[in-house]
Design a protein that fits this description.
The protein has helices at about 5-15, 40-50, and strands spanning about 20, 30. By secondary structure, it is mainly alpha-helical.
Length: about 60
């Protein structure tokens, strides 16, 4: 996990709206509400997807 664990722990240390869910040790949860920054969430999801998507997919 290495660097990913460092980033995961950094987000968890920020507190709400970030949290470490008990169903997976390798992800960060995010509580969604009226104050959610949807642009930031889109960036985080895109970056996360790029880290875990198979590199052999077309377009990579």
């Amino acid at each position: 996990m290495g660097g990913c664990a460092v980033e995961r722990d950094a987000f968890a240390a920020l507190g709400f709206p970030y949290f470490l869910p008990n169903w997976s040790p390798s992800i960060v949860g995010l509580s969604l509400d009226d104050a959610t920054d949807w642009d930031e969430l889109a960036e985080l999801l895109t970056e996360s997807y790029c880290l875990v998507a198979p590199k052999s997919w077309p377009g990579w």
